[in-house]
Amino acid sequence: MRFNEKELVFLSRQPPERAAELGMRGPKKGDVVKRRLVKLIVNFLFYFRTDEDEVSVNQSQWHRYHYCYRYLFLDEAERKYLFECDSQEQCEEWIDAVVKASYEFMRKNLIYYRTEIHRLTGKDPLEQYGISDETRFQVNSGLPPPPT
Amino acid sequence: MKLNEKSVAHYATCNSPPDKTGFLFKKGERNTAYHRRWFILKGNMLFYFEERESREPIGVIVLEGCTVELCESESEEFAFAVKFDCVKARVYKMAAENQAAMESWVKALSRASFDYMRLVVKELERQLEEVQEEARSSQAKNKPKKHQPQVQGATFSLQNAAITGPSQEGVSSRENGVSWSKPTSVPNGVSEGCVWEGDFCGRGDGVKPPPVPPRRKTNGGSPESPVSPGTGCFSKLHEWYGKEVAELRIEWMQSK
Description:
Chain A: This is Pleckstrin homology domain-containing family J member 1. The complex is a heterodimer. Chain A is α+β, with helices and mostly antiparallel strands. In chain A, about 25% of the residues lie in helices and about 30% in strands. A 7-stranded antiparallel sheet of chain A has the order 5-4-3-2-8-7-6, sandwiched between helices. Chain A is elongated and about 55 Å long. Mean pLDDT of chain A is about 80; it is low at about 140-145. Chain B contains 5 helices and 10 strands. Chain B has helices spanning about 5-15, 100-110, 115-140, 170, 235-255; strands spanning about 1-5, 20-25, 35-40, 45-50, 60, 65-70, 80-85, 90-95, 155, 195. Classes of the chains: A alpha+beta, B alpha+beta.
């Protein structure tokens, strides 16, 4: 699958939400924990090899995430990633950041604020932006389409 | 750079609802002809497929840090371009099938970024806080006639709030530039039946006065009190109440 690599590399160099050197274990059988520079930027998780400047990226669309002590588990559809933090506190900060680095999370917040403001004032705050009609901001978006 | 392609491709075709879909003509990279492709926009990712029925996308364009512009094309009408900030970035040229589709896509793509979402959310968060703050301060000013004793989780009606009704004008002329002057179709705004679960319940921020301490019943003087209720003699009162305290203290010590 093609993707705009140059632009993603450029994105990986932007100021991150959160960055740290963590232990990281990939999803493949036999993968071991390796030190990586991990950066969370918008809804992408970039990880750099500490010795080289090479970067890989995971689009941050985790199905499941949980943590235990200082280990953070992020699961994609079929693959599981493990991140080893220096402390439980750091682990909690990361999971908090990862949860918020989700397009769906942003969308839900937007819908919540829009609904609340409308409830309290009778006005739709998105009208001023001209985006009140967009499907992605509708209250019932996020539900699967009805079966045909 | 490695991308978790399988997961990303899965995201394209899974049953989460897309934000926009449709056919567009896309200019090829090497082959400069325009090819008709099926596009699916989900979040800040624009996927393109060979056919509508294709199971896997040919590719994805991550829409972060890009601008979308109308552009001139010799061969295509309704053309627009997705451009990125970075050096030697590729320009993605696309064309829609009609004016309306072009406008709709340009609008959707230019607002698809996570960054944009985040900005809008921050702004709405700020607006909500302002709205709540205004309601709080006007609630404090307009003391309701029927004083409700402190109840945890009390609900407050916004009927006295200055937000709705004629003060809509005040709202739209605020300094922050927010202008909500477009008339709403709701006749009374939210002044009727709007119950606001006070989120400042129990916070003690001065909006609700503290509970009135229970009054001792002294009408007509109780049989126990040797002192008439209206007595102004402090020493007598002090003596009598002091006796009661002493008795209670003994009682308590004995019960230990």
